[in-house]
Amino acid sequence: MTVVSQVILKSDDELRYPSIGELQSINDFLKTGEQRVRIATILSENEKKIVDRSSGQLWKKRPDFIAPGGNAAGQRERALCLRDYGWYLRLITYGILSGDKDPIESIGLIGVKDMYNSLGVPMAGMVEAIRCLKEAALALLDEEDAKETAPYFDFLIQGMS
User: Fold this and answer.
1) CATH number at residue 49
2) pLDDT tens sequence across 134-151
3) Where do runs of H (alpha helix) occur along 32-74?
C-alpha cells in the first residue's frame, strides 16, 4: 500500500485530517515519483535482456539445474523458469512504483515456499536465481537508481530464504 493510501486510511479510521508529519511523508513520496517511474520503465523495457542475462549467470553457476535430471533440464522446464524470472521482475516494479514492499509480499511471497516445494523446486535455487536477476537488473541502472532498487530485490530474496 502506498504512503498516500496508508495516510488516508489511518486518518479516516481515526476520523481526522492527516497530520503535518503525514502530509510531509506524502510530499516526500511524491518527490520520488519520477525516479520510481524511470526505474520501472527501464526494468520493464529490458525484461528480456535482464532475464536472459540472469538465467545465463545462473546456468553457469549451477549447470546441474539444466543438466539431465535438473529442474530446468528440458525446454519446457527452462521456459517455465524464465517465465517465473519475468514474473518476479514485474513484482519488483510493482514495489518500486508503490514505494512499498507490500505488493511483493502479498502477490509474490505468501505461499511461494509451499508452491516451489510441492513442485520439487529447491528454494536455494530460486534464491540464487533472484540474486542473478538482481545483478542483471542493477547493471542497467545508474548508481542512485540501483541504490533505490536493491532493497526490493533483497526483500524478495530474504522472503524466499
Assistant:
1) 1.10.490.20
2) 999 999 999 999 999 999
3) 33-45, 47-61
122/140 Cα distance (integer angstroms): 28
Residue labelled with grid coordinates 547493471: 139
Q: Which domain holds residue 126?
A: 33-160
Report the domain count for the chain. Answer: 2
Q: What is the pTM of this model?
A: 0.89
CA distance 128 to 108: 16
My answer on whether 100 and 124 are in the same domain is: yes
* DSSP 8-state code for residue 141: S
Listed in sequence order, the residues at least 6 apart from 113 whose beta carbon sits closer than 8 Å to its beta carbon are 123, 160
86-114: per-residue pLDDT in tens? 999 999 999 999 999 999 998 888 888 88
Task: Record the cell numbers describing residue 160, joined without a space.
Answer: 524466499
